[in-house]
């Protein structure tokens, strides 16, 4: 008897131009385009195995060994049913293909980075889920086509279907068919940029991206300015910086956009605070490091939490890690030589 099973992994991505705000919450259509770098270290990945079997009684999913419910109209079930729909189209074209679209699936996903790293795993998680089903179903889909489905799991997941430098073009169509990820440049175009991840806190508390975005869209005037006046020009400028491998331009835009995203969070009513004192101290340190060098040698960026990601040319990473260790002596590198646990309680996460 044939076994229908596939295993695929997908990496985490960290945005330089932040996605924040949905214009359609069901289809997950954003209010602005965004751009990220997919981290290619082996240990910042989700690996997902999908198996289709007519003897299974229903679709089921396990995350890091623990079963998670698949809610009937939730994001997981949307992604799974969209993938089954694509498979059914393949079967309709090829009547001898096994009817995998009618079999229930069991999906097991694991993150190989510690939950304590405080990194959002939904991006790599939904990208790996969609990619493993595409492999199981032997779909002729491109990463951009798959990004349309991963986007409906978690917006930022659509960018993890590509390595390297990736844009999520917001699109204009109401059905979302042009809101997809595209590769701006492969990793090999500019392999020199590395990411140093500083875990400031592994606390899970805070405002989720879903509720935070909704509140920002409803209440922030600054968000309206950002999406109409700021992001379109920034998207063009950062793509250009990447294509020219211009680190100072890339870094300046990355830091400006992180700052504006957190300003927009603060402009939300009631305000959302994602940064803490340690996050702000790291901003001050990187700012001073660049000022003292008389050149931009590093860029910080923060997502919806206090943890810093520092982008820098590889040659500067050691110096930056040493600088951080000098000012945060309680920090210790963990897992990856380029990851630091900068824990504000003086202990490793
Ligand atoms: O995809 P979500 O819902 O986890 O939202 C991600 C939002 C940010 O991480 C703050 C920005 C981004 O573009 O990744």
Automatic annotation (TrEMBL):
EC number(s) per entry: 4.1.1.33
GO-annotated cellular components: cytosol
Gene Ontology MF, one: ATP binding
Database matches in InterPro entries: GHMP_kinase_C_sf, Mev_decarb, Mev_diP_decarb, MVD-like_N, Mvd1_C, Ribosomal_Su5_D2-typ_SF, Ribsml_uS5_D2-typ_fold_subgr
All residue ranges annotated as the Mvd1 C-terminal domain in the record: 195-349
UniProt pathway: Isoprenoid biosynthesis; isopentenyl diphosphate biosynthesis via mevalonate pathway; isopentenyl diphosphate from (R)-mevalonate: step 3/3
GO biological process, alphabetically ordered: isopentenyl diphosphate biosynthetic process, mevalonate pathway; sterol biosynthetic process
Annotated Pfam families: MDD_C, MVD-like_N
Catalytic function, reaction form: (R)-5-diphosphomevalonate + ATP = isopentenyl diphosphate + ADP + phosphate + CO2
Signal peptide: none
Segments forming domain Diphosphomevalonate decarboxylase-like N-terminal: 10-181
Keywords of this entry: ATP-binding, Kinase, Lipid biosynthesis, Lipid metabolism, Lyase, Nucleotide-binding, Steroid biosynthesis, Steroid metabolism, Sterol biosynthesis, Sterol metabolism, Transferase
Protein family: Belongs to the diphosphomevalonate decarboxylase family.
PANTHER family assigned to the protein according to its UniProt record, in alphabetical order: DIPHOSPHOMEVALONATE DECARBOXYLASE (PTHR10977:SF3)
Name of this protein: Diphosphomevalonate decarboxylase
